[in-house]
Design brief:
Chain lengths: 162, 150
Amino acid sequence: MNIRTPIGQAAFLILFSCIIGFGSNLVRGDAIPWIAPELEIADSIAQETESNDPVLLAISLNQAKNLFDGGILFVDARDDAYYTAGHIQGALKNAFLMELIFSIEAIQEKNAPLVVYCGDPGCGDSEDLAYDLQDSGFNKLYVFKGGWLEWSKAEYPSESDE
Amino acid sequence: MTRYFKVQIVFFFRLIIGIIFIYASWDKIAHPAAFATAIGNYHAVPFGLENMMAMVLPWLELLVGVCLIAGIMVDGAAIMCIVMNIVFIFAISQALARGISIECGCFSVSTETGDNIGLETILRDIAYLVMSFVILYRNEKRLEFFPKPV
């Protein structure tokens, strides 16, 4: 690394920042984990659903099906084309966030439970949307991690707009 | 076109950007967890890497600010200013495009500053970006101590 060249200097600044940043995190009292923790997976959701406490939890296929059978609203976090090709029966489309918020509020209150899902366990859109909705005041959110992949494999109620 | 900018203007821009970056780093260094949350709110960083960004980015801002003011590695500091401002503009734009209303987290990580992202935040970063380019493409290297101008 030649710190007489502009790029070398930039690389040096990044490297030095990493050393101080990571090093100080090792010794400070209010250290944070290296990787932000993933969403906690719920063991049981009965208690959370009935209480008034804020909830943001990941749920399994069976838990999602139980909530579906209980008439809980689902929101599809995937792009339009995927939603049109097939989605969980009755799920709302992920429009522009404000539009989606209006659509949900037309159906239920902000403290009513809501399930968000996307394509498969690897996609992060459902979690992102859940955090966006949480920032917008919704406080009982479940992220169905298995998403459309697990739901369609299980042949649970679905529909398409095609 | 920036080759003929006057030395005084370049030094003034170095001071302005330097002070802004040092000021911006202060609260973030003091509150890494809150800053990690602020980064996470943009939903633009994958795999939980917002925590690592929260550890490094404030120190990078501080170093860049000190280098610009002290006249040390000004070229490298200007490049990092450009890169950081482009990243900030991208992060804010994608959040706005998705209709997310969040605190900027630019100068303070407190959630009660009311400094929400918006068009003015992007314009502010564009102004910093322009100043950084002026610094990088300066014609004369005055009041710089390392590397010694030839």
